[in-house]
Amino acid sequence: MFSKQLITVILWVLPALAALSPPVLVRRNQNPVPGRYIVTLKDDVDDVVGASSFANKISRRSTITHEWDIINGFAGNFTDADLEFLRTHPNVASIEEDGYFRAQSTQITIQ
User: Which residues contact 101 (CB under 8 A, 6 or more apart)?
Assistant: First the structure.
């Protein structure tokens, strides 16, 4: 009797535990812009609903500054608490620090 109940509980709990995923790691940048991050959403998240649904859930001290048609995601300035919220949200695929980049040119000589 005890073992049947235990097995039943395990069968109910395991799928719920499997659905939980660890927080997304924030990819670091060599020359970061403090507090600015680029958030990419999972492929199955509707990009029309994506950024707007997050705008209603973050604090007023955080702002979404950019949305793109080319990628399913957005960028903005986020507080530590809002960044943690984004890291644990099931629709977020990745987060990386926004940063300063330098373009370098290469000269090719054709003879």
Answer: 31
Q: How far apart are CA 58 and CA 82, in angstroms?
A: 6
Decide if 101 contacts 77 (C-beta within 8 A): no
* 29-48 pLDDT, tens digit each: 888 999 999 999 988 877 66
List, in order of start, the domains of the chain with CATH numbers: 22-99 (3.30.70.80)
Q: What would you measure as the largest C-alpha separation in the chain, in angstroms?
A: 86
Half-sphere exposure of 34 (CA within 13 A, CB side): 0
Model's pTM, two decimal places? 0.71
The number of residues making up the chain comes to: 111
